[in-house]
Write a structure and sequence with these properties.
6 helices; 25% helix; alpha+beta; Anthranilate synthase
Amino acid sequence: MSKQTIAIYRMPNEEDYYSLTSEEKLVINSEEKNGFFFSNFDTGTTYTLSNPTSIKNSWPSFEPFLNSSDEEISKENYISKVSQIVEEIKTGRMKKVVFSRIQNVDKSNSFELKKAFKDLCNNYPKAFVYCVSSKETGTWMGASPELLMNKNEETFKTVSLAGTRTEGVNWTTKEREEQQVVTDYILDKINGFSSSVKVSEPFDLDTGVVIHLKSDIEFSLDKNSSLWNLVSILHPTPAVCGMPTKDAKQLIGELEPQKRDLYTGFIGPMGINNHSSLFVNLRCMQVCNDAISLYLGGGIMSESSPEKEWIETQNKAKTLIRVL
């Protein structure tokens, strides 16, 4: 088997999956209209698998690129850093910070990318499921519930997604405010590109293990507005970074022990197989040499409980652990 860049994906609410390969190198920071795109949260680098060959429902034969896993943060250290973030937010300098950690799971000798991918597809039919393997990034896989941008002719769609609860638990004021903060942020950014915006009332999005608050946002771009300019302004959203974006991202870089890499970047096909959608790379894992690293985050606000935030990341881990 050869080592080459591979992208495999299954769109939400679809049964077919597509395997993409290309003889060309990944294009860096391109604004090409067509290709498979994925980005690095830390550096802002966008990678493009351009002019790919696409095969439907056929898993390619390839040797994945594997990195070494990072060390986990302890529960005590996690709670200490979240407490520090809460105190920082209470000063008024920031409204929200999304703090993340990794959880390493032993990789059994029987682990197979193909089986894990198909299990994700079966368990999460409403999610965007993908597997990417490249020299630049290593091998990643995930099932994201969050749309960043969809293009259908001249109509664009995005979502406001925030808050996490389990079945039988009511939404708290903190979680509703968290979701409204994300909605207001997105609308403020879109208003500079569109004069026609529709927003739905918040509703429950059940991902199978946890439930989120979600609002659908539809709009059309004004003339002379660029999709990629809008993406660069929308991403990273408060749902994965915080507010204000610059201050939150700086604090994330100071406190998170691991690099996020592709976690909370955007990912998806544009102009391929009649698909033009970008998703926020959540509920994802990096397949490493020695382990599988699950990436888990939560939105921290002034009323956040560090202990409850730890539990929330544990609940999110179940999304991926159940297929491992």
